[in-house]
Amino acid sequence: MNYFNITDQYLIQVWHACGAFKTFGFSRLGKPGAPKLNDTANRKYDNAIVSSSSIIDCYAEAFGISNEKVLPLGVPRTDVFFDDDYAKSAKEKFYNRYPHLENKKIILFAPTYRGGNRKKWLLSYKCF
User: Fold this and answer.
1) Could you read off the pLDDT of 47-69 as tens digits, one per residue?
2) Does pLDDT of 102 surpass 50?
3) 10 burial class (0-12, 13-18, 19+ CB within 10 angstroms)?
4) Is the dihedral of CA 78, 81, 84, 87 positive or negative?
5) Around Cβ 20, how many Cβ atoms within 10 Å?
6) DSSP letter string over the chain?
7) Average of pLDDT values for 70-77?
8) Residue 50 burial (CB < 10 Å; 0-12/13-18/19+)?
9) Residue 128 has pLDDT above 50, yes or no
10) Within 13 Å of residue 42, how many CA atoms lie on the same side as its CB?
11) Pseudo-torsion of CA 88, 94, 99, 103, nearest 10°?
12) Is 1 within 8 Å of 25 (Cβ atoms)?
């Protein structure tokens, strides 16, 4: 956002994560890849939307904005998970494709991919 001169627009950050499980933005000051202290990129946000009031402080620090600008409204990309029709449809599609898994305990292992050779990494977890 440093490269844009936004004066007559309202800029809202809709963060991709559902929590603050790692450091990011200005909470990384002094670490590799951190923004510079005088960086204005994140500070241009009029508001940031986050998943919960318990993480307002984390996002305010990371974006260099006041707590009042961080709104705990939930995460739009997860709203669908609270839609009963969607959940029912997803279950039906899943069990139509994998009927042998009905009434079985299902565990999802979804590690975060971090660089390197993706195919080799996936093969090491027998995901491919």
Assistant:
1) 999 988 999 999 999 888 999 99
2) yes
3) exposed
4) positive
5) 20
6) -TT---SSS--EEE-SSSS--S--GGGGTTSTTPPPTT--TGGG-SEEEES-GGGHHHHHHHHT--GGGEEE---GGGGGGG-HHHHHHHHHHHHHH-GGGTTS------PPP-SS-HHHHHHHTT--
7) 87
8) buried
9) no
10) 22
11) -60
12) no
| Per-residue pLDDT at 112 | 64
Residue 91's Cβ-side half-sphere holds a number of Cα atoms within 13 Å equal to 11
Residue labelled with tokens 């951190």: 34
Q: Identify the band that residue 127 occupies on the pLDDT scale cut at 50, 70 and 90.
A: very low
Q: Choose the most confident range, by mean pLDDT, from 44-48, 74-78, 107-111, 117-121.
A: 44-48
- Cα distance between residue 72 and residue 56, in whole Å: 7
CA 22 from centre of chain: 11
Reading the block at residue 123, the tokens are: 């093969």
